[in-house]
Amino acid sequence: MSIDINSAWEELKNRVQNCQKCKLCEQRHNTVFGEGPVENCKVMIIGEGPGEEEDLSGRPFIGPAGQLLTKILEQGGGIPRSSVYIANIVKCRPPDNRNPEQEEMLACSEYIEAQLLLLRPKIVVAMGNISAQWLLKSKQGITKLRGQWLDWRGIKLFPMFHPSYLLRNASRAKGSPKDLTWQDIKALKLKIDEIN
Ligand code: SF4
After folding, report:
1. Which has the closest alpha carbon to 47: 127, 115, 106?
2. Taking the model in full, what pTM does it have?
3. What gap in Å lies between CA 47 and CA 4, rounded to an integer?
4. Rounded to the nearest whole angstrom, what is the distance from the C-alpha of residue 109 to the centroid of ligand 1?
5. Which residues are CB-neighbours of 17 under 8 A, at least 6 positions away?
6. CA pair distance 64, 116, nearest whole angstrom
7. 31 C-beta closer than 6 A to ligand 1
8. Dist CA 46 CA 49 (whole Å)
9. 150: domain CATH number?
10. In angstroms, rounded to a whole number, what is the distance separating the alpha carbons of residues 124 and 149?
11. Ligand 1: which residue has its CA nearest to atom 3?
């Protein structure tokens, strides 16, 4: 990372920490900026917003859904969690884990867009309906979008089911969300190997 990008990254983080652009700032304990490699970032995973554990710790995807994400990456795809950058569309927790509202995503979108433009990952994984629809400006559901190689401003975009959805749908039967996710993570690994 060059000095300029480094300072831009720290400045962005600072702005997020102090942000009061939407009402989600009122109940937060911490903003959740994201974590992972900033230099030579190949893959960025983007979820919708922090949950309770993430709000309390300031770290993304560390609750039950985050633990499942780690398992999917590492056991399903052979992709170390530490090799991907993980962030969310909104940086503050929506109360009671509700979906972020359009105006909250709109207010926060400058930060995720700045992160994307600074990191320039080769691949973005849109985790779940909210993230995929927001990035693609699509009304199609994740069931239709998942597993396809799409485009976000010249970056490969790959939607997948959100791990919290998988926690609510435990079946491993053929064609179930878990089964499809197992296929998707292998497709993601193949693409990562291709671009290496
Ligand atoms: S969710 Fe985003 S826009 Fe809203 S207060 Fe938090 S950082 Fe600011």
Report:
1. 127
2. 0.96
3. 27
4. 9
5. 31, 33
6. 26
7. yes
8. 9
9. 3.40.470.10
10. 10
11. 108
Q: Whose CA is nearest to atom 4 of ligand 1?
A: 22
> Within the chain, how many helices (H) and strands (E) appear?
9, 5
* Range list of H helices, the chain: 3-17, 52-57, 64-71, 77, 102-119, 129-136, 142-145, 163-168, 177-195
Ligand 1 midpoint to CA 92 (Å): 6
Helix/strand/coil percent split, the chain, to 5:
50, 10, 35
Summarize pLDDT for 55-68 with one digit per residue, the tens: 999 999 999 999 99
Residue 146 CB less than 6 A away from ligand 1: no
Contact 110, 91 (CB under 8 A): no
* Domain interval for residue 164: 3-195
pLDDT tens readout for residues 2-58:
557 889 999 999 999 999 999 999 999 999 999 999 988 999 999 999 999 999 999
Asked if residue 30 lies in contact with residue 56, where contact means CB atoms within 8 angstroms, the answer is yes
Count of structural domains, the chain: 1
Query: For residue 165, which amino acid is it?
Result: Y
Q: Ligand 1, closest atom to CA 104?
A: 4
